[in-house]
Design a protein that fits this description.
The chain is 39% helix and 15% strand. The protein is globular. It has 475 residues and is of the alpha/beta class. It contains eleven helices and 13 strands. The structure holds pyridoxal-5'-phosphate (PLP).
Length: 475
């Protein structure tokens, strides 16, 4: 080989080597150019970036978020079985709304609605589609909106038939009755649709709806009453059985404008059917027309799924104008959803849980949840600093406030911050309307919280109190 050729060759090799070094360096996240730069926020970067680097940088970007299993604020699922996660991942690229293209996903959705309807005591001989109907939703919020809209439209039909001029909004503005511990979705619903929200104060001792007050608020413009089976802020339940009894009497004398119940069972809908201690609240009650639940709460699916079911045993359960026809296997079926495209993954995840755990599995899980709740609540009460308002013996929500006569230099907000230093998210907040001067703190006990995790929490809870007591001594 001539000298020149040799030189050229080694230069060529050097270039190749440099090139391979560069790419090897770029493969390494820490030595990459991007690791030394801020993450893009306002504008898309001009050039593409190595996928492994992007993956790791985004992982790092999310580093200081809550560890999901230590997030005791959320009702949402933080842990599913690997088999479920695999099924969900495989179904991510499906679109649940395309019922013809994904007929099995559509069938799975129907299976879930059927099982959930029966779980809420629709009699075994009543069939999905013939006797009851429902849909998956993105969460309870969409379920509440649909339940609320059905009440609005059916009221309009009844009111028109009864001769009310529903266009005269001064005299006939529709109203909805709900306890003041409602979740924000109901405020959205009323705002979006121009409905007057009539808030019933919480009963002082029970932290739930004062049913007599609710009844006194009803008039000809009432589209319905929402019973909350699991109040977000207090962990109590409305007495829907009593509400149903009173409405039955009311409806006997108001045959042209009867009032119905929608039950918002966002988190309790998958809990109450499996544990003791709940009065009938579901389709066993005559005036309960519809119920919503979040699949991603005690239905134990990752966030992104809810359900709403209407029972057809009454003439105006779900108005025609809310049922849009979509093609499905050469037929046409109802589409009731507000959202259009969304993945079928969560629906598949829900079906997995229903089939995998069955009634006995759900029962065992929810009873463990209750045991953990009771232990936590006792540990919190035993500190002597707090009075427990809801103790987890019914719903797995523990709320407490500072005990009367106990003087500390720290508040529940300080305790919230101190617990966060141990990684636990435990929110402190004021109670709803009329009791907003009372600050409470709350733990949501979810299936992912085993006794071991609860024991760790209790140890950290004691440490946090000790730390706060000491901290203030030096102030
Ligand atoms: C009683 C109640 N209704 C509705 C919702 C909204 O549920 P989602 O987050 O599933 O939309 C919640 C959420 O916590 C809730 O507690």
């Amino acid at each position: 080989m001539k000298m020149n050729e040799q030189l050229e060759k080694s230069e060529e090799l050097l270039v190749k080597k440099e090139a391979s070094e560069i790419s090897a360096t770029e493969e390494n996240v820490l030595s990459s150019v991007e690791a030394g730069m801020d993450m893009p926020t306002e504008f898309m970067p001009l050039k593409a970036t190595n996928p492994n680097i992007v993956e790791e940088l985004i992982r790092q970007y999310r580093l200081n978020e809550a560890k999901p299993n230590q997030n005791l604020t959320t009702f949402c699922t933080t842990q599913m079985e690997p088999q479920a996660t695999r099924l969900i991942t495989e179904a991510l690229n499906t679109n649940a709304i395309d019922k013809s293209e994904y007929p099995k996903t559509a069938a799975i959705e129907d299976n879930c609605v059927a099982m959930i309807g029966h779980m809420w005591n629709i009699p075994a001989d009543e069939k999905f589609r013939d006797d009851f109907i429902g849909t998956s939703t993105v969460g309870s919020s969409e379920g509440c909106m649909l339940g609320g809209l059905a009440m609005l439209f059916t009221w309009k039909h009844r009111a028109q038939k009864a001769g009310l001029d529903i266009d005269d909004l001064h005299t006939h503005r529709p109203n909805l009755i709900i306890d003041s511990g409602y979740q924000v979705v109901w405020e959205k619903f009323c705002t979006y649709w121009g409905i007057e929200m009539r808030q019933v104060d919480l009963k002082h001792d029970e932290l739930s709806m004062d049913v007599d007050k609710a009844m006194s608020m009803i008039d000809e413009n009432t589209i319905g009453v929402v019973g909350i089976q699991g109040i977000t802020y207090t962990g109590a339940v409305d007495d829907i059985k009593l509400l149903d009894e009173k409405l039955t009497v009311y409806n006997e004398t108001h045959k042209d404008l009867p009032v119905h119940i929608h039950v918002d069972a966002a988190y309790c809908g998958f809990f109450a059917p499996f544990v003791d201690g709940f009065e009938p609240w579901d389709f066993r009650l005559k005036n309960v027309y519809s119920i919503n639940v979040s699949g991603h709460k005690y239905g134990m699916v990752y966030p992104g799924v809810g359900w709403v079911v209407w029972r057809k045993n009454n003439p105006d359960f779900l108005p025609e104008e809310m049922r849009f026809a979509v093609a499905y296997l050469g037929k046409s079926v109802d589409s009731i959803a507000i959202n259009f495209s969304h993945s079928g993954a969560q629906i598949v995840g829900q079906y997995y849980n229903l089939v995998r755990f069955g009634v006995q599995g759900f029962r065992a899980i929810m009873n463990n949840v209750r045991k953990v709740s009771e232990k936590l609540s006792k540990a919190i009460a035993d500190t002597g600093y707090f009075s427990v308002l809801t103790d987890g013996s019914k719903l797995p929500i523990i709320t407490w406030e500072m005990a009367k006569g106990v003087h500390t230099k720290w508040s529940l907000y300080d305790l919230q911050d101190q617990l966060l230093m141990h990684g636990w998210q435990v929110p402190a907040y004021p109670l709803p309307k009329d009791r907003q001067d009372e600050i409470v703190q709350r733990i949501v006990v979810r299936p992912a919280m085993s006794m071991t995790i609860a024991d760790d929490f209790i140890a950290d809870f004691h440490s946090a109190i000790e730390e706060l007591n000491k901290k203030r001594l030096f102030d």
